[in-house]
Amino acid sequence: MKIAIIAANGQAGQAIAKEAVERGHQVTAVVRSENKSAAQEVIQKDAFALSKEDLAGFDVVVNAFGAWTPETLPDHSRLASHLTDLLAGTSTRLLVVGGAGSLYLDQSQTSMLKDAPDFPADYLPVAEAMGAGLDIYRQATAVNWTYISPAADFDAEGQKAGAYTLAGEVFQVNAQGESYISYVDYAVALVDIAEKGGYQQERISVFAS
């Protein structure tokens, strides 16, 4: 497949690019500076400057963008709006590297992980910003999007086990009571979804088995 990865220089973007290239896909990095990922092609452009022509012809676009500072947190929603505008009515799939804070605590889907009393205060602004982005994807009925939330412990330094469990909108833990996934195993799951399809206009989650 032809896969474009927005923010391919980030830790998640690099892991996804490496996994996709190793499986034989044609990967294009969308980056503002020199490409540091395994992607074979490069679109050197700010994500907010992307046009419909830039993304035409890709089977999958991966949004691996992340913002962490107060002034950039609204960019999660800005980019969600921009990408859904560009891809509306096309066959291109949009896979979004999401956050865990917007996962629901139980099947009633009334409270989210970020609402729990013990949710780390430092991560709350990011969780709320990413949740606002998810709301925009949910409204994009003309886009084939899938929002993939990682486990609560999303480990950039973790090893590749090659095993994971997919779940839905409700926060889950494994048999050891842990909500954990490494970036590299998250990348395995995301590329599997890119290859197999499914989960159209759905938010799903992934954690280590």
Automatic annotation (TrEMBL):
Location of the NAD(P)-binding domain: 8-162
Domain of life: Bacteria
InterPro entries given in the database record: NAD(P)-bd_dom, NAD(P)-bd_dom_sf, Polyketide_Oxido-like
CDD domains the UniProt entry points to: BVR-B_like_SDR_a
Pfam family, one: NAD_binding_10
Gene Ontology MF annotations: oxidoreductase activity, acting on the CH-NH group of donors, NAD or NADP as acceptor
PANTHER family with a match to the protein in the record: FLAVIN REDUCTASE (NADPH)
Name of the featured protein: NAD(P)-dependent oxidoreductase
